[in-house]
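pasting for ref
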Amino acid sequence: MLRPAFQAGFVAFLMGLAAQWWSIHTGVVFAFWDAQAHLDIARRVVDSTTPGPQMLGTVWLPIPHLLMLPFTLIDAWWWSGLAGGVVGLIAFVATVTSLHVLLVRRMDAQMAWIGTAFVLCNPSLLYLQTTAMTEPVLLAFLVGSVVALDQWNASGSRAALWVAGALAALSIGSRYDGWFFSLMAAPTVAWLSWRHRRPWVRATLRFALPCAVMVAAWLVFNWVYFGDPLEFQRGVWSAQAQQAQSAAMSALPTKGHLGASLAVYLGATILSSGVVLTVTGLLAIPMAAWRFRENAPALLLLSVLPFNVLALVAGQSTIQLPWRDPPGILNLRYGVMLLPALVVALALMAAQLARRGEGWRRGTQLAALVVLAGQVALFAVNWPANVGALREGIAIRDGDRRQQEASDWLTAHYDGGRILVDEAVNLSPRTRIPLRDRIYQWTWQLGAEALASPESAVDWVIVDQHHAAGRVAHAIDGREAFATRFDRAFERDGLEIWRRR
């Protein structure tokens, strides 16, 4: 397996590297506001007014930020976004390598390469791995865990089962999709152990123990630093709190509707994983499940489908599609999470058909090549509208050009000093403003001081006058002491940067 794994990893590295170069030089590496926030969260553990583990926060799970942290300490990599790209590239290579190994175990090399090419040529994943977004990291851990489980299922290797559990635990620490995957994987391990007449309790504990440790560590972290072990779920910055605001504005049309939720998630999958692959992959699932005891570990990749659908039904997530009413472009990238599962389902069906004889094997290869070529062609048509993750990133970037222009202006003009930042404003790492010099309303001690007397506490103020509830706007409006000491150096449709004279 070493040679196929190395070959697939090398090709993935070259393609991922080319995508990294393209993303940085076309300026889309920071298109997602979340990508900028992920880099800042990693950096602020050591670069902030109150450095320490608590700066990881509770909004997002910690593993991606801990992986990015050492790379963000290189200033140039933090400023350019390369700190996130390095982690994304490693994750992309790991995903492709693991998937290729899984396929090689079940089919000839040519068919395995065709299956792997669906991931190698997916522009949504290629783009996401250039950014600091967390989806590529989760996919690497999920696919790696599945490959280890597959090896354990075939050989009974205890080491493989420990590896599977460790990778599943890392997926738990990366995104909440990993929690659902682990909940489905544990009973699958128990069932497979029972069918193979192995000690099923012991095997399940080997897999589940690292997962339980990761969950416990996250609960303890929230309790110690924020006073509530469930702060990540019900805190003021949690996804639940944010979705509650959306629900109050009737902006969660899928909540409580299973059919609509399924349709919306599959819509996101069509845009990010590809319509041809989505249709053929879903049709392939019944045949892929035919040899269930053999294929059960690989089919665990499908767990992201019920997880995302249930999250939409529960109102814990939201996806907006351009063809729904009202139209929108939001969280289309979630559809890329189903990419490995669709590829595996299609490949397993192909392997089943190939067993019928040489003619079937050749015909299956030809059909798979046609599907691959058709999918790549559709991605290229009307680019980038057919590439969900990239389309979403560009929509976010272009949705508020004022903030992009403000970051560009600060990149050229910021020359040191503390800056009071409106909570509605996103500052890009490319501004090169140290996080210890960024003061927000919640910054310990300094936030209250800056709001009470901005003219004596900071050297810069950036405020969005359209943010009606903004405390920064309230702190400077009509304040004579501030007006006599600061000049408005930048203004774009209500977004203002004030600089001390």
